[in-house]
Specification:
The complex is a heterooctamer, with 2 copies of chain A (180 residues), 2 copies of chain C (68 residues), 2 copies of chain E (372 residues) and 2 copies of chain G (272 residues). Chain C is of the alpha+beta class and 68 residues long. Helix content of chain C is 15%, strand content 26%. The two termini of chain C are 14 Å apart. Chain E is α/β, with parallel strands linked by helices and 372 residues long. Chain E folds into 3 domains: 180 residues, Thiamin diphosphate (ThDP)-binding fold, Pyr/PP domains (Rossmann fold), CATH 3.40.50; 52 residues, no CATH class; 109 residues, 3-Layer(aba) Sandwich (Rossmann fold), CATH 3.40.50.920. Chain E is built from 14 helices and 18 strands. In chain E, the strands form 4 sheets. In chain E, strands 2, 3, 4, 5, 6, 7, 8 and 16 form an 8-stranded mixed sheet that branches. A 5-stranded mixed sheet of chain E has the order 13-15-14-17-18, with helices on both faces. In chain E, helix 1 crosses helix 2. The radius of gyration of chain E is 21 Å and the shape is globular. Chain G has a single domain, classed as Thiamin diphosphate (ThDP)-binding fold, Pyr/PP domains (Rossmann fold, 3-Layer(aba) Sandwich). Chain G is built from 10 helices and 8 strands. In chain G, helix 1 crosses helix 6 and helix 4 crosses helix 5. The longest helix of chain G is centred in the N-terminal third of the chain and has 16 residues. Classes of the chains: A alpha/beta (180), C alpha+beta (68), E alpha/beta (372), G alpha/beta (272). Chains in contact: A-F, A-G, B-E, B-H, C-G, D-H, E-F, E-G, E-H, F-G, F-H, G-H. Chains E and F meet through helix 4, helix 5, strand 6, helix 6 and helix 9 of E and helix 4, helix 5, strand 6, helix 6 and helix 9 of F. Strand 12 of chain E pairs parallel with strand 2 of chain G. The structure holds thiamine diphosphate (2 copies), iron/sulfur cluster (6 copies) and magnesium ion (2 copies). The site of one iron/sulfur cluster (SF4) has 15 residues of chain C, from strand 1 and helix 2.
Amino acid sequence: MRYEIIFSGIGGQGMILCGKIAAEAASIYEKKHSVQTVYYGPESRGGIAESYVIISDEPVDYPKITRAHALVAMSQSGLDRHLAHIHENAVIITETGKVVTEGRIPRRASLSAGAFTEESIRIMARPLAANIVALGLFSAKTQMISPEACKKAIRHNVPAGTEEKNIAAFDAGYQLGING
Amino acid sequence: MRYEIIFSGIGGQGMILCGKIAAEAASIYEKKHSVQTVYYGPESRGGIAESYVIISDEPVDYPKITRAHALVAMSQSGLDRHLAHIHENAVIITETGKVVTEGRIPRRASLSAGAFTEESIRIMARPLAANIVALGLFSAKTQMISPEACKKAIRHNVPAGTEEKNIAAFDAGYQLGING
Amino acid sequence: MAGKKEFLIKINLDFCKACGLCYSYCPTKAIGPDKEFRASVVDADKCIGCLQCENYCPDFAIEIEEIK
Amino acid sequence: MAGKKEFLIKINLDFCKACGLCYSYCPTKAIGPDKEFRASVVDADKCIGCLQCENYCPDFAIEIEEIK
Amino acid sequence: MGEIKFLQGNEACALGAMRAGLRFFGGYPITPSSEIAEQCARLLPCSGGRFIQMEDEIASIASIIGASLAGSKSMTATSGPGFSLMQEALGYGIMAEIPFVVVNVMRGGPSTGHPTGPSQGDIMQARWGTHGDHPVIALYPESVPETYYEIIRAFNLAERFRQPVIFLMDEILGKMNESVEIKDDISVFEREKIQSRDGRYRPYAMKDDIPLTANYGEGLRFHVTGLFHDETGFPDVSGENIQKNMDRMYRKIENNIEELQKWEESGADNPEILLVSAGTQARSAKMACQELNSRGISAAVFRPVTVWPFPEKRLSALAARSKKVLVVEMNKGQLADECRKFISDEKLIPVNQLNSEMISPDEIIRQVEGVL
Amino acid sequence: MGEIKFLQGNEACALGAMRAGLRFFGGYPITPSSEIAEQCARLLPCSGGRFIQMEDEIASIASIIGASLAGSKSMTATSGPGFSLMQEALGYGIMAEIPFVVVNVMRGGPSTGHPTGPSQGDIMQARWGTHGDHPVIALYPESVPETYYEIIRAFNLAERFRQPVIFLMDEILGKMNESVEIKDDISVFEREKIQSRDGRYRPYAMKDDIPLTANYGEGLRFHVTGLFHDETGFPDVSGENIQKNMDRMYRKIENNIEELQKWEESGADNPEILLVSAGTQARSAKMACQELNSRGISAAVFRPVTVWPFPEKRLSALAARSKKVLVVEMNKGQLADECRKFISDEKLIPVNQLNSEMISPDEIIRQVEGVL
Amino acid sequence: MFDYAEYLRLDKLPHIWCYGCGNGIILKGAIRAIDKMGWEKDSVMAVSGIGCSSRATGYLDFNSLHTLHGRAIPFATGIKMAKPELNVIVFTGDGDATAIGGNHFIHAARRNINLTVILFNNNIYGMTGGQYSPTTPKGYFASTAPYGHIDPSFDIVELALGAGATFVARSTVANPREMEKVIHEGLKNKGFSLIEVVSNCHERFGKRNKMKSPYEMIEWIRSRSVSKVKAESMEAEEREGKIITGIFRQETRPEYVETYDELVLKKARGGI
Amino acid sequence: MFDYAEYLRLDKLPHIWCYGCGNGIILKGAIRAIDKMGWEKDSVMAVSGIGCSSRATGYLDFNSLHTLHGRAIPFATGIKMAKPELNVIVFTGDGDATAIGGNHFIHAARRNINLTVILFNNNIYGMTGGQYSPTTPKGYFASTAPYGHIDPSFDIVELALGAGATFVARSTVANPREMEKVIHEGLKNKGFSLIEVVSNCHERFGKRNKMKSPYEMIEWIRSRSVSKVKAESMEAEEREGKIITGIFRQETRPEYVETYDELVLKKARGGI
Ligand SMILES: Cc1ncc(C[n+]2csc(CCOP(=O)(O)OP(=O)(O)O)c2C)c(N)n1
Ligand SMILES: Cc1ncc(C[n+]2csc(CCOP(=O)(O)OP(=O)(O)O)c2C)c(N)n1
Ligand code: SF4
Ligand code: SF4
Ligand code: SF4
Ligand code: SF4
Ligand code: SF4
Ligand code: SF4
Ligand SMILES: [Mg+2]
Ligand SMILES: [Mg+2]
């Protein structure tokens, strides 16, 4: 089966890294096929910055989104822009307080929101790992990629020295998903 | 009729200017059609430098030589290279002493040679107008372009201040042709 | 206090990018960060109109006006 | 004259372009122009081996050799 | 009748440009085009224009784009190596829709190649040399008088369509001398401008798909960029805007193709043998054609004067009626390759030569005889 | 089975180049290619190679030509604007027959265009960007693993044919992440040299039309120039020599076309509908094709991997058996235009989009349905 | 109160630059300096190349032109030749003006054509992600210098002097008022003027080099700045790595287009 | 007797240069200077651009490369990076090195890469027929300056100094022995060396400017030449139009490729 995920946000929020971790986890540690593509603006910071991940048992041809099964939206525009491109029963992940969801989510879609930034600040005193918290929530809610695979990919992709904090951030997000 | 002339020499001998004067004389002062094209090497001095003139009552299409009616050759290679491209009864003009002609001129061609450099030195104390002397001889021998037209074109093309000397050089060449 | 000049600190939050330069360079701390690190007026009375904030703000987000 | 050095002036007419630099710069006029302004030996005895001609000749056309 | 002047091709190019209203030339010398710069250096100041020799070809084309934006009709001239260097900025001119003329007097390539030899090797480069999709206008005359008049047309088209025009010549043409009748009644197109503004001035407001941008320094302050942009001139890289403007830029050419295209037909009507040839090489084809006709062979010459957009429709119609089409070029078959798009391989015969000489009438006749 | 790595396209390009024996990279950053330079800066010194960031793209390509002549396998990477600037020196590489690889990660053009958007707008430029007639080799992979292996092939072809190879990628591919199996058995072609000299060493002595020039600094002192030259490497601009060498340079490609060309065919045999597409866009065509097949429509995809010389013969044969040929491209129809040379206008349907997004499988299916 | 809005295309703000980017500080200083000139907005022509810094022209309510990477100066040269009455200001970066555009820079300086070049020197290629530029200091890290940078830097002031510029100055974002002053002096010069303004890019340079915030970077710049007067009394080694600020040349020499008009136009008209 | 033939490709002579062209004088001086280095011919790499002067490489029996107009230095840079053991000498002209190639010139100087650049400055574009170059003196005529030239010239020495070259010298064809000496000093420098040699082109420059013979032109050069020492005691106005000869900088700074190998190669190997 072909599984499509959108990680959407603005520059600096780490949505491109998030997609890369997810795709790498699926491909290297779960031995599935995956591909991640990106979209970004010319701005160094603050413009749209998002990535698309396709996971499949078969080799992936078309690497872009046809209709997403999951949407991780860290910004309002990231949610709004993509509502037209998701499956009716898609999993939607957003940040509490930052993204208004009321009246926007398709009826059969499942929405999970978490205070990612807060969690990150709690764990590493900085908002930097909010994306990883979101990834944890995503992993828990979709079960598309195992937490183990995710964590391996996280270790491989975050700056040296920040591995444990990021793992903690992931776990926090995963817990949100399990509990919520 | 289409009349073709080759002015051949090496850089610095003024064969390109010579061709331009002839073509301009024919076209502007004799109201014929004419075109002049050139061939030259990358060297600033000393390489091949020649020009081709076509004179015709009709507009000239092909601007290069098919078979020349006249060949003015100021260098040995200029003569040798072109013997294959001339009419059997072509007019050939060369400089006495500088170009070996013995045994090379086609039977029915007419050869005229003159001491162009000497004449030039006589007239202007410098060898610079040897080409114009040759042009005079050419004009006399072929009668393709009237001396009047040539002289007008000379005045128009030589550096200001040298007009009279160049006219004298032309006349000297023309006399050679009439007398010889 | 006679002669003391008063200043209006005008902050445009639509432009402010929370870089912190204005309040870092404010010699009197008349301004400071808000919760999201954007510029905010702490105590307008402290403002001496030195324009440090205005000169350093890269975003045309803070301007100082003398109140006459 | 004892001690006076003698020199061979070697001119390569295939290379000489008649620029005149060698004999213009020859301090003794040991060399001069031929009819076509190429370099030619006027009086080899006058040559003092200063190499002016050789240094100025752009065409590798003149060389001076000391005769031992 | 106008005055008759005896001119070199390069000289006629400069004089024609002056006649078209040239006011600025920025260039860098290169054989066999340098006389164009030299003439402009001499002529421009006589009419209040200005000449500058820039540090290289990139600076040259950049300077003329700047001058054009400031309102001066502008030109540069070069040959293959310089034309290659100009490709990036040429694309800027196309993207920002700025009128100017780039002359390329073709010499033997690739690379330094044969600086003093002729070739027709840059015809495809003129079409595709810069990156990205883009429409192109390129003209290529065959004679000195035609150079004079076609360079005027080049300026007119540039100004009318707001687009750089590539003016191809070849070494033979650039260095050739011929007489030119300087006619009095020549129409020169002057830049049309939309000056009105409602709110912000929109330099890329369109009239029939053509932007009528004002000149800098005339009171309308606007922005120009090489990024995709909207009517206001400011960047807009949204998919819709890119698609819309690329479509429009192609349309601006396609909808005016008759005004743009020009060609010459000579020889027999409904010929059996059609010779296709451009630039000076066409003159050889014409002589060959006359000879063929005189021998009773039904032959004609089709000579594109506008090389891009290539006059495909007309040539296609002519080819349909001919038995064989010989495309005669001083290159490896660039126009012939283009003709493959609409002339079948059975009919099409490339006649090519790359020995730094024009293909002679005799050789063309020989080739024709070979296929009869 | 080799190690599996999860790599970005640009990264795979750099790693593959290292595997092919890259020893020198000279470059200038530009979006979306910069990661190639960044990776080379990191990787090269680890294997005794060297990296330099030059002052611009012209210097970059000049430096790699120099390094190649001195014996180092060399590469540069850029995008449209830089590729335009490299055209003159690219021609030098072709003329002097020097092996190196130029990567162009295509972005939206012309001009600055859309720096972070994908396009396939430089395909024709790769063929015709430099002046003068010249043969071209250009490859264009579709995926990260294919990038890894094709860049190795690019180096092998460059070294074998003594010719620059243009390596096309697109913004999607350059920035895409995928896993790559790094195989052990990879064949790397090492420069063959004719070292023997009878009299003056002849760097352009040919073996099967290919010059086996030595490296500088290995004891054979020779001359290289961008002018037309003979076997000794010295200038010879005689007509015969130019004709002879241009013919040979084309022949060196044409006679080895099977070794050079590579393509992929997928989907139905003898399809009614043939989709032609290159690079990442082909992946969309392949998905569309599967869907069409699953709906019972006989469709197949032809994907050129070697873009130049274009695999005309094979595609022509396939097209002959199909009812319709849709050429699907993120440009204004550049390959479609090329296909016009051997596929009739009735059969050929260009499917183009220039809105900085890949044409989706849905859109392709819609187009196919429109012609059924 | 200074009215920046008068000179801005407000609808284009906030600009695309990162929070705290020095580009905004320079842009403001330039606006204040231009304001002092009292020029009509219509008479001002702002030209830029490509780079973060080169985006400046889009925000200014003048005639504005965003050209190609490295080519702002020759575009500006053409404009000046065509309409000398325009006050042409070039906004450029260290990469734009001294890497790819280095040749145009030195030639415009040589000609002494009346352009004012405001060079935003952030010691890095900001827009493309932090590759080293001709002014990246030795030993620092960049995305293409993962093991530390080894290139000696251009001293842009020395380069401009060597090329023959008639006005050459350097300032920094650490001193916005002084910067404004030297830009103003540069604008007054009738000839080629270069004002290098050392700026901060914490995003692409700072973060790789242990300076995470704009403030840290500006203070780093300040800590290395010394005035020209002070530098003159320093030893060579002491000067190493310092940013020497001030006006280095301020000279009156014939301007290019004026000379052209006086000599060439006159002679041509007389002569023909 | 000095054996020029040892270094020449005799079958390529006579060369294509005009009679009396200074290029030949410089070529000879360079040969003598190279000879003093005692290098194996196989270890010498001669690189040139395009121009009359750039034809020099074809006559030298070294490894030789005739590149593109203006690009000799970046080609040479690549060669040096690939094979640092080669002794790389660049033969170039005033147009080649300071017009179209100006950027490469200043960047190679900045890097201090070990190239010796011998710049034949004849103040004109010889090969293309006498258009003005960045060093054509004001007031003189050129084919593109029919009314007299108005551009200020580059002082190539100042430019090289400003860009950071470690060896900078100027000589002229009027003094072939001194020229040989400074070329030799330049060859010895491990780093970027620039030797400008002022030369005569009577054909394209002289004839337009009332100097018809090579001799006249060389004497014109001599008449304007003053040594650096002497020039230092001259007033600015006096120095105007003078050709100041001598060595202007001779400094030891780390060479580029050596630094690369010491720092980058080492760290990369250690670090990975
Ligand atoms: C011909 C070309 N080459 C490369 C680029 C990519 N590019 C865009 S901006 C830039 C560097 C900008 O550096 P700088 O001028 O210092 O500006 P900054 O972003 O640092 O302000 C580069 C290399 C380009 N746009 N065009
Ligand atoms: C890209 C490019 N532009 C222009 C030319 C034409 N060109 C050849 S040599 C030359 C000038 C040479 O001047 P200089 O370097 O001073 O050499 P000189 O002939 O004076 O020795 C020019 C402009 C070229 N070959 N390539
Ligand atoms: S003007 Fe000075 S004192 Fe007032 S807020 Fe700004 S920085 Fe602080
Ligand atoms: S300096 Fe400007 S942008 Fe930064 S925090 Fe202060 S007001 Fe906001
Ligand atoms: S060595 Fe001196 S003296 Fe002898 S011929 Fe030469 S220049 Fe004259
Ligand atoms: S200097 Fe050389 S070329 Fe000139 S005249 Fe003397 S020998 Fe001949
Ligand atoms: S990347 Fe650097 S220069 Fe660019 S906007 Fe951000 S901080 Fe400024
Ligand atoms: S044109 Fe000038 S530089 Fe060229 S060879 Fe002749 S004299 Fe020398
Ligand atoms: Mg920068
Ligand atoms: Mg020169």
